[in-house]
Model the fold of this input.
Amino acid sequence: MQRKGILFIVSGPSGAGKGTVLNQVMRDLSGLSLSISVTTREPRDGEIDGVHYHFRKNEEFDEMVKNNEFLEHVSKYKNRYGTPRTGVEELLDAGRDVILEIETKGAIRIKSIFRDAVLVFITPYSSDELETRLDSRGSENSNSKELRLKIAKDEYKKMKHYDFIALNDDINVCVETIKAIIIAERSRLTRNTNAIERYIPSK
Amino acid sequence: MQRKGILFIVSGPSGAGKGTVLNQVMRDLSGLSLSISVTTREPRDGEIDGVHYHFRKNEEFDEMVKNNEFLEHVSKYKNRYGTPRTGVEELLDAGRDVILEIETKGAIRIKSIFRDAVLVFITPYSSDELETRLDSRGSENSNSKELRLKIAKDEYKKMKHYDFIALNDDINVCVETIKAIIIAERSRLTRNTNAIERYIPSK
Done:
């Protein structure tokens, strides 16, 4: 009998480099799917619909909420973000591991549905570093920086709910850490109980 | 404040290739110490005192037991094996991670002392494979094979107490799995609570 897929939920403050890290992890490991979130915010330069996000209008988002199409959805910086239900459950049942990149509130909500989910918090080394990264992010309005720093603080307060913390002061180290967490969880005994019997010598 | 070291306990049936795997892991990862067991059995070809085991006479072993020098000790194949107390506790306090390669009974006993210890079970793919490996092991007496198979069965029954299972049908994959488990556990939030505060932005 096939192992059920593992749900990995990755969060962290804006500017922690989650997207870059996860793209590298996806390139290096097989058997892994990245669930794409739905958002009402405007695409940044280079962002592609269906790759980075599913970009939807407010009314379309409302419709999806009404039709119960989200595992969870939240508002953030006056924009809305949602995790589509379709895909995630099917992938897990088919034995594929799934990565969701979502903010902390949604992560904790999803953990209450998927008890076996693994929560990973990506963070730059220090708070100074975080601020530098927010500063250098040209695509953001400068007047929203204070707001995003405040929200970052709130994210850090939720860190205690997470299983793992992955530093991103060196992207290669961070990628190796995320990959290690995935490989280790795949080897966790409680996720392989169906397979254990075949290791017991029959005679 | 420095993180306390993590205790990794690695077990698995005779012939599972634990020694080879752990030597490779020790070469690849830093911050890791391998605790050497004490035994009363005869050295096999190529085994060096103080490297593979501390080889001691029965009376010397008795003395160590009397002086409370072991974390745990057991009898196996009419030989005795013990985990020296000295070293392990000091290394952990100094923030170094320690690997103990011991059999299942001792592992479970040590887990009851070191609650945060991580238990890893290394196994070849199948029971057939296990038997082949026991057959090809020239250094063993052929008449002890049945006994060691019986003991292997008993080891597998204790597998349910373990945190992780690492397949050794491919040594490189097995080494990567063990390394992943170590890196992941180093990133576990509950092992980094002292460090969390510095990630919270101060303003």
